[in-house]
Amino acid sequence: MSGTFKTIYWPDDGSRSAANSPPPDEQTATAILLPDGTDAGYTTIPIALDANQSFSVSDVPAGPYFLQLDGQVFPLCPSCPSGFEQAVSTRLIELRSDSPDLTTLSAARPDIVRHGGPFLHLDVSGLAPWVFGDSVLTATSQGFAYGKLAPSPTPTVGATAAGGLWLEFNLGLPDASKGDVFYAYQRSTTTIGNGASAGRVAAASRYARVTDLTLTPTSSSLSVKLTDTAQQTGAVRADFRYSQFAALAPSVHPSAVPGVGAAVSVLAVPHSAEYPDMPSASERTSLFALFILAAPPAEDVDYGTLHYGEFLDPLWKTYRVAVYSFDVQAPSAGGAAGPTPSLVSRVLTSSDPGPIVPMLGPPTQPRIEQRDAFAGEMIGVGLRPTITWSPPTLGHATSYEVTIAGQTQPVIAGETRVLSAIVYSGRSFKLPPDFLRQGRHYSATITARSGPWDTFDHAPFHEGTPFHTADCVTGLFTP
User: Fold this and answer.
1) pLDDT at site 373
2) How far is residue 96's CA from residue 129's CA, in Å, rounded to a whole number?
3) Is the pTM of this model over 0.90?
4) What angle do CA 368, 373, 377 make, to 5 degrees?
5) 466 preceded by cis ω (within 30°)?
6) For the chain, N or C: smaller number of CB within 10 Å?
7) Phi first, then psi: what are they for 176, rounded to 5°?
8) 126 with 208: CB under 8 angstroms?
9) Residue range 201-219, pLDDT digits in tens
10) Where among 66, 84, 106 does a domain terminate?
């Protein structure tokens, strides 16, 4: 089998070009894992990419295998002087093709220059009178620079200007000579509902469409004046059927209760929000968000049709994301925070999605080495346990993702702490060797995933809408 990692560039003019490139998200392709039925569970075949970002492996048996990608994560570490400690993240993607599609799609220009210095300073004027909860965001499709203002000091109520660090989600440097269009815009905040159903609506209001902005690697600041008021023609029907989400809590975990985290948002992405033409996950911006301020009520609430400003060029497309989170009271080791399971759905705004209801339930009956994974702490599951689960009671899962994270503090530098595996071939996953450590505590999140495009051997770095996920979480376990 063989593969080549590539990026397909799709800038504003609609042209496409491809170039060999490293794996996405600064990951490194390190191995092929072949299930072999042994105690170890896998035959590991190391791989290394050549100068063309390609690899080739001979005499691989037919059937499913996992492509292993390793990267770095920076989880919060309260015991570390810096507040963060670097750890390794391992991602496994189940495939069976002898020549998988390893392309990534980006709306950036192929010649984009990336910013490698500290955060820039951003000054924004022309704001609508500032209220608590307001924000300023930026976006440029082929300029590959999405970000948010971190104002300092916090603007006073009624302020029409703000300044602070520009927190870039990507590292592109817009260049006016290349035709880059840069947007800066304000999301203005209002309150809605009352009591347990009270929420905060943040909707795009004032904006600037800038065509003469050029940033260089030595740039230290930029200033933008918002000059226009966005027409409030975007619409979201916020008929939130809270009771249907809450009814799924026992499948999430026996201790699960509705948590602070119910939200509806509208995101904009260049060119397409559908598979296989949706750009990478970091290339999008938020035009609207409804946040529930407390744990949502038990009854359904219809907030009516809410509006937001539309001002982006026609090449931008929108989709709606609904999130409902749970609090889990499962014990954790060393005071570490437990996982936050959620139900998430994203659908095209143009499809008139109707009431906000759960589209997919969590996996059910999770087990570790045939032991009930909900039944308190599991001791002695072994260094390579098998995790199994049953299908959701709501909806149809097209794949599952199993995520294992260490829960013991303090973090031990250099140890792998996070492993995730996307599974298509069944409802079980055996942990590979050299991940779990004796004396450490772990928990697992098992996520059901559903999308018409989410099929075995689809291009794993492409995504689209509709897509739904639902989590269940286990208790703690130790080898």
Assistant:
1) 96
2) 56
3) yes
4) 105
5) yes
6) C
7) -60, -35
8) yes
9) 999 999 999 999 999 999 9
10) 106
